[in-house]
Amino acid sequence: MTVRWSTVQVHPRDRVAYWVDHVCNACQVDCEPRRDTALFGDCAVADLAGTLQFGKGASTAQALSRSPRQIARGNADFIHVCVMSYGRGLFSQDGREAVLEPGDFLLSDRTRPYRFIFDGEFSQTVVMMPRQMLTCRVGSAERFTAIRIEGSKGLGGLLSPVLQNLGGQLRDIPAHAQARIAENVIDLVASAVLSESEGLPISSGMTYVRVKFWIESHLAQELSGERIASECGVSVRHLNRLFARDGVSLMQYVWDRRLARCQRELTDPMMCHRSIIEIAMASGFKDQSHFSRAYRARYGRTARDDRATQTRAKHRPNETLG
């Protein structure tokens, strides 16, 4: 569902009151439109699979603040990814400041005060994602707020157009595909902010989060403790200590994640065109019998049983796993 507000049909003398009462109140921010400029504004919010929300707005020069009063109203369980589409904005939070040019984006945390100043007409896309879904990938969000990610090159250049355009394409995306897309978007945002912070000193907890995210992104490849440690810049001994705290070994965690990916794809209608063996091999399994035994031990049923739960599944003659 999409909710939209616009000042187009509002008399000019009433537009500031309308914008503050409707848009700013719904977004739980304090608005300070410039009084020397005739205000106009347009804003729309849409959902993606009940997981992400997309907001897109355009307006004239103003300052937006997330004050303690607004924070106390609630609705703080989201992290916002703010993307500049047009104009320029100065964002400050957690003692950092960032100037956003068109295409650039950053994270803002709804649990702490921030201020966003736009010095002229602007257009912005905001992707609102549940806090836990991002922090389980990057750790504490406080480390990454108000850090500009350039939208013209690298991972930022790849991601920025996706973030800006996805909200407008929701009506054409099948419902069963939206949950997977939401997960992929969060993965890409996590990759971008982690990449931007490379080289900064990090805690053991953050190292643990980064290692898990790296593993998740490389499950299809040959993995060993030595390779994971080398790619993540830590020792094998340190990795083993980190995972031992959760009562699991490093490689056991890798196999658990491979099984979880297989189970997700076997029950995903979008994956019905892929055979069980294709899904298993794409998740890093090389031995059919090992996969079959491990899957049954983990889930108490065979891979073929899970595939059969999807009415759209198309069984192939060469499926020998499960």
Strand order of the largest sheet: 1-3-4-11-6-9
N-C termini distance: 40 Å
Could you estimate the helical fraction of the residues in percent? 40-55%
Number of strands: 11
Q: Please trace the helix and strand order, writing H or E for each element.
A: EHEEEEHEEEEEEHHHHHHHHHH
Radius of gyration using CA atoms only: 23 Å
**Which structural class do you get from the secondary structure elements?**
alpha+beta
Q: Could you explain how this protein is built, in words?
A:
The protein is of the alpha+beta class and 322 residues long. It contains twelve helices and eleven strands. It has helices at residues 15-27, 68-72, 131-138, 154-166, 175-196, 204-217, 225-232, 236-244, 250-266, 276-282, 288-299, 303-308, and strands at residues 2-6, 30-33, 41-48, 52-59, 62-66, 78-86, 89-93, 96-100, 105-109, 114-118, 122-130. It has a six-stranded antiparallel beta sheet, sandwiched between helices. A five-stranded antiparallel beta sheet has the order 2-5-10-7-8. Helix 3 crosses helix 5 (175-196) and helix 4 (154-166) runs antiparallel to helix 5. It is elongated, with a radius of gyration of 23 Å. The chain starts with a strand and ends in a 14-residue tail after the last helix.
Describe the structure in brief.
This protein is α+β, with helices and mostly antiparallel strands and 322 residues long.
